[in-house]
């Protein structure tokens, strides 16, 4: 995980320059990213090795929310492609995203109150598979940060909801993948 954070910091420095790393004099680029007209819910970002951000975000449309990937064309993210991934009645908490060593994104998100893992099969995530980690309706209502383990497989966290029928109410759960 520390390696990934160093990559993000290095990418930010390449946009502003090493001499401007203190940020008071660093010119920040502010522009809208075309995500459509729906209200947005949650967003997370990862940065590719070449400095291009990849965003995962949800829309906040009651009973018709979507999970989308925005793959930026360059480091300033002025243009890019929206890749629709899934729909749910509502997404609870921020999704998670990492970029694996081969450039393929991996994502986690709540899905109808459960947990779903999205495994991109190519770097643009035009093809992906998903696995339900917790079934829908199990009351998983939390952010889902995602990180890479030293072996390159993902690990993520979530809070098991405090429901009477929950196997671990209120617990912080870490999920380690071993073969993704």
DSSP, total strands: 11
Task: Tell me the structural class.
Answer: mainly beta
Q: What's the alpha carbon Rg, rounded to whole Å?
A: 17 Å
Spans of 5+ residues with little confidence (pLDDT < 50)?
1-20
Overall 3D shape: globular
What order do the SSEs take from the amino end to the carboxyl end, as H and E? HEEEEEEEEEEE
Mean pLDDT: 78
Spatially, the strands of the biggest sheet line up as 1-2-3-4
Q: Bin the helical content.
A: under 10%
Spatial gap, N to C terminus: 17 Å
Strand count, sense and closure of the main sheet?
A: 4 strands, antiparallel
**Count the helices. How many?**
1
Beta-strand percent range: 35-45%
What's this entry about, in short?
This protein has 180 residues and is mostly beta strands. Helix content is 8%, strand content 39%. It has one helix spanning 2-16; strands at 40-47, 53-59, 65-72, 80-88, 96-99, 105-111, 114-120, 128-134, 146-148, 154-159, 172-176.
Can you walk me through this structure?
- This protein has 180 residues and is mostly beta strands.
- It has 1 helix and 11 strands.
- The protein has one helix at 2-16, and strands spanning 40-47, 53-59, 65-72, 80-88, 96-99, 105-111, 114-120, 128-134, 146-148, 154-159, 172-176.
- The strands form 3 sheets. It has a 4-stranded antiparallel sheet.
- Strand 2 (53-59) and strand 3 (65-72) form a beta hairpin.
- The longest helix is centred in the N-terminal third of the chain and has 15 residues, at 2-16.
């Amino acid at each position: 995980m520390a390696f990934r954070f160093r990559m993000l910091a290095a990418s930010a420095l390449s946009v502003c320059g090493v001499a401007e790393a203190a940020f008071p004099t660093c010119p920040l680029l502010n522009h809208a990213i075309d995500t459509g007209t729906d209200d947005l819910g949650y967003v997370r970002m990862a940065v590719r090795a070449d400095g291009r951000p990849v965003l995962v975000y949800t829309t906040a449309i009651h009973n018709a929310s979507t999970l989308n990937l925005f793959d930026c064309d360059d480091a300033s993210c002025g243009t890019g492609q929206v890749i629709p991934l899934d729909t749910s009645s509502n997404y609870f908490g921020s999704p998670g995203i990492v970029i694996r060593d081969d450039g393929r994104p991996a994502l986690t998100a709540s899905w109808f109150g459960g947990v779903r893992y999205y495994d991109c099969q190519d770097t643009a995530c035009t093809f992906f598979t998903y696995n339900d980690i917790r079934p829908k309706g199990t009351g998983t209502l939390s952010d889902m940060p995602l990180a890479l383990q030293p072996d390159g497989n993902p690990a993520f966290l979530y809070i098991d909801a405090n429901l009477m029928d929950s196997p671990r109410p209120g617990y912080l759960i870490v999920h380690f993948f071993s073969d993704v």
